[in-house]
């Protein structure tokens, strides 16, 4: 997020000063402290925080579980090539993150890792 926009001598970047200011503002926010604070405040209010692996959440169909990059027609549109399920891609990602959180709560870390392994195996079978 805070990558330099300076570019190279042959190909200089645009709006370097503005990007530099944005970088300073981003780095001043202390993002590293965000996660522990979120964990602390959530527990303080009686909630629970689960960090789930985000891989393939926007490529996995919540209807049938099919994982494919082809499910993403565009940045905003998700359409499953297997069962025809359609929704906004961000909504699909949120559904999958929520589902992984529920799996983590119900079955623990081991079950989530096992299901992620199966999803990754499906993806590597499709790409080979
Ligand atoms: Zn599907």
TrEMBL record:
The keyword DNA-binding appears for this protein: yes
Which is an annotated Pfam family here? Cas12f1-like_TNB
Native source species: Thiothrix litoralis
Residue ranges annotated for the Cas12f1-like TNB domain, each copy included:
31-97
Q: What is this protein called?
A: Transposase
Keywords for the protein's UniProt record, in alphabetical order: DNA-binding
């Amino acid at each position: 997020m805070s990558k330099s926009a300076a570019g190279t001598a042959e190909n200089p970047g645009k709006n370097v000063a503005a990007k530099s200011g944005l970088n300073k503002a981003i780095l001043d926010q202390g993002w590293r402290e965000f996660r522990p604070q979120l964990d602390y405040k959530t527990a303080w209010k009686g909630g629970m925080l689960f960090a789930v692996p985000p891989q393939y959440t926007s490529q996995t169909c919540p209807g049938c579980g099919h994982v494919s990059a082809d499910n993403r027609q565009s940045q905003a549109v998700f359409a499953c090539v297997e069962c025809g399920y359609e929704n906004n891609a961000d909504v699909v990602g949120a559904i999958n993150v929520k589902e992984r959180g529920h799996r983590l709560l119900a079955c623990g870390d081991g079950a989530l890792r096992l299901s992620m392994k199966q999803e990754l195996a499906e993806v590597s079978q499709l790409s080979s």
